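The methods section describes the discrete structure representation at length, but only in general terms. Since the whole study asks how a given chain folds, the encoding of that fold should be made plain. An entry of this sort, consisting of the sequence and the corresponding backbone structure tokens, reads as follows:

. . .
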Amino acid sequence: QVQLVESGGGLVQAGGSLSLSCAASGLTFNNYAMGWFRQAPGKNRNIVAGINWSGGNTAYADSVQGRFTISKDNAKNTVTLQMSSLKPEDTAVYYCGVKLGLRLGVHVQVSEYDYWGQGTHVTVSS
């Protein structure tokens, strides 16, 4: 079955950097679009960044544009979110998701995704 496992979360000071990784198994990884989402306490899960099946196209939430970078390594079955210039408002549980469907473009809606990881906590202190 499809499994997604996130890692790399933690506590960081404002202005710092973190790199999140999502390892996928149970699917032919290089065929599928992926995304990173986040959910703060009491709030809905929202898109952070999405990437198409090949890794050649990306999209970002306005709030992270220019600070975060999503990438996809089809050889290693991983999708990475490099986060820099972190702010306290970036504090959330971060989830990776996969959208099934062969060779699709970037998707940014929670409802479009089919499988999720368990999430990794990111806390940014001021």
Summary: The chain has a mean pLDDT of 95. Residues 14 and 36 are 20 Å apart (CA to CA). DSSP finds no helices and eleven strands in the chain.
